[in-house]
Amino acid sequence: MPARKPPASKQPGMPSRAQILEFLQTSDQIAGKREIAKAFGLKGQEKIALKALLKDMAEEGLIDGKKTAYHRMGGVPKVTVLRVLEIDDGEPYAIPDAWSPDDATPPPRLRIVEGKKARNSKQPALKVGDRVLARTEESGRGWLAYPMKKLPARTEGLMGVVEIDASGKGWLAPVDKRVRSSSPIADLGGAEAGQLVVAEPAGKSPRSGVKVTEVIGDPLEPRSFSLIAIAKHGIPHVFPEAALEEAQRAARIPLSHEHREDLRDLPIVAIDPADARDHDDAIWAEPDGEGGYRALVAIADVSFYVRPTSEVDREARKRGNSVYFPDRVVPMLPEVLSADVCSLKEGEDRAAMACHLRISPDGKVTKWRFTRALVRIAHNIAYEDAQAAIDEERAPEHLQHLWGAWKLLAAARAARDPLELELPERQVRLDAEGRITEIAVRERLDAHRVVEDFMIAANVAAAKALEARTAPVVYRVHEAPGREKLVALRDYMKTFGHSLALGQVITPGLFNRMIKDIVDESEKAQVMEAVLRSQTQAYYGPENAGHFGLALGSYAHFTSPIRRYSDLLVHRALVDAYKLEQPEPKGLPAHSGLSDRDRDDLSKISEAISKTERRAMEAERDTIDRYVAAWLASRVGEVFETRITGVQSFGFFATILGVGGDGLVPVSTLGREHFRWEEAAQRLVGDDSGTTYAPGDRLELRLAEANPLTGALKFELPEGGGRIEPRGNRPDSRRKRPRPDGGKHMQGKRGRPGNIRHQGRKR
């Protein structure tokens, strides 16, 4: 039988991969190299080229079989390298990392099936951009991939700065402080030296280098720091057209006055940061005449606008939460919802989920009730302004009532004795042009505690209300420390002469008393760091294991549905459990309760949003580190007062007091003396002098390097050793040093600077 003729669209000559696959799929006989060459009329050198092409296709898994008989594999090797493309509902989806067909055939999409991992496993979850070696198989529902090994990233999210060497060759300098080497640039794509760019692999081998796909611009522009984090962590930041259009339709849904509790006459207030753009929550309270209070926590009714299985919901599930950077917000929901219709704005009628609370004279919440309500916020007030009004005794009556109710809640909280760790939060302040004016520790006010305790009360009420109806709950779980970490903490405490008996019941109050008993401030800081390291990471899940840190038996996140998907799920569960459904809107899904898949199994989405939360925390921390390094770049060589935050065998890390930013002091820079690493005590000890470096120690260190692109700092000891006070003998009054900015900060207008953009708008 004669060989099949080549496709009509192909003239004699070297065929493409797609044409070979088409020929193999439609051939009515067994086809090998000879049949393929004959079908396409190949001769001489073309046959040699065909042999090489078929070898490449076999290695890529496009074809299978011996050299004398090929057949189509379907495009995916049995074992291959995959690149994670997106995370959908907690499940990673990937494409072949080296997919480059001649005819632009789209790559197959594989669902990665991750093995069961222990909750406290150190193995990190896969994220967008990760590369894995995986075993693949085709099932009736598509391609599946089973990871065998996670591979190192080629570059930091394939983002870096272009450098041109003396020979004119381009190199991509990484923006990740963990990546030490640059990648050769095969195609500059019009980029110039010094520009921040996005790139992708130019070939299958790392030696092929990278090609520039997008030029971002000046890497030292403040906006670049958050863009680097967005690219590195694979954070979705552009809403699909369909989601934006649907959000506009949802925003026009009329509110049904007949089906909502009308609370517009109550003087409800929303107390938020001065630069807040979305207002999830508002509060109200009044005395009940019996020594307690009636209180209300009004939360944006996001579930009314964001329906299960809708386009907006699908995008919100991917994001899991909003991500906050100093210069922008990457919101979970489109701006028309997050910053407008859902946001509880002063003087505007808004849909709310109302949590009615009864607070007893001893601060316990004895009753709760949930309704869908209509509210009109009396005031949007900043924390600082609310605190000033209370302190200056000029607060209106409704604000005084809030403080009165809070004092009862605070007393109950103190009796509960939750974990109390003084962990300062850094705040980057920008001017209207986006320039850094100050990096400071955020002040902690009673106004913050007022809102926090009201939110905790509402979150507990939501969890218990759902439990009362045996309804599905997405719990916020914080488990007690594991034995391994407690043993390490016990051994560490021995080095200070303190004991930690592991036979007793471990409670947050035990840690609080341990910290309170320590008089020396530096030693107290070290112990707080050690206690923090001993804690497990909080997560979301449908199985209740309590919240150790808050000393609560049942806890769920209910109060921030604009920025957290977990809270939206709790709202939907309440809608179902308490029959709070509203009239069906036009053009949107009918129901605002849980979807069938979430009602049947909340574990998958709970795991997914736990991952996106960790992703957001890492991205925000990375960005702050870059801002801190940029802030300090002009002060290299100066000496700062620092505190040691961590010690390893290769050196120790320290942070500048009041500013932050961890920097390394390599052990090689400590002089000729040999320093031994005592792991149990987490310290370095000099063999000759006995000099020690341990977490919590305060030192004067010289800033040796500050790299804004990576966020990396490096310190060195100044002449004289830099020790501020000998350990264990610190005076109460400490030497004051000038602030790193000289105390001369630009004073801008109050509120979020005008340059801040709400990321996610239609491009």
Give a verbal description of the structure.
It is built from 17 helices and 34 strands. The strands form 10 sheets. It has a 5-stranded mixed barrel. Strand 8 and strand 9 form a beta hairpin. Helix 4 runs antiparallel to helix 17 and helix 10 crosses helix 11. The longest helix is centred in the C-terminal third of the chain and has 30 residues, at 603-632. The chain starts with 16 loop residues before the first helix and ends in a 5-residue tail after the last strand.
Label this structure with key terms.
five-stranded mixed beta barrel; alpha+beta; globular; 763 residues
The whole-angstrom Rg is 30 Å
- Which percent bin holds the helix content? 25-40%
Strand order of the largest sheet: 3-4-5-7-6
Summarize model confidence as the mean pLDDT: 84
Strand content: 25-35%
Contiguous uncertain segments of 5+ residues = 1-11, 726-758
The largest sheet, given as strand count, sense and whether it forms a barrel, is: 5 strands, mixed, barrel
Q: What is the end-to-end distance?
A: 57 Å
Strand count: 34
Count of helix runs: 17
Category from helices, strands and their pairing: alpha+beta
Shape: globular
